[in-house]
Please model this.
Amino acid sequence: MKLQHLVLTFLMAAITTVSFAQSGYVGTWKTVDDNTGKAKAHVKIYEEGGKLYGKIIKVLDEERATATCIKCKGDKKGQKIEGLTILEDLKKKGDYYGGGLITDPENGKEYKCFIELESATKLKVRGYIGVAALGRTQYWYKL
Model:
């Protein structure tokens, strides 16, 4: 009986930890332009099938609100940037999510990606080619 209670307690703690970790990532995040420091877009991160995805739900620059991803490849080519899925297939990897891709709608390129919570309201987003040392980091802020 004590062993069953211990196992059940452990399983509940593990499930709670996974749910909390995902819930910290899931939500709407404000992206910031690397060069100007101005808010650029809102990205909704959501969970589907145990993986995280992110979609641009609002472009904050009115002139770019109807822009399309003309340099994107495949089924993303020509899609409106607002509504474009830019984070794909991120899997839990210890304290972060990785193993997926991020699309830069400005140049249409896809990069390997990982995301990691810096705090409850600050998300580190790293896109890279090859090894993580060769890439760019952005910080997104939870709304």
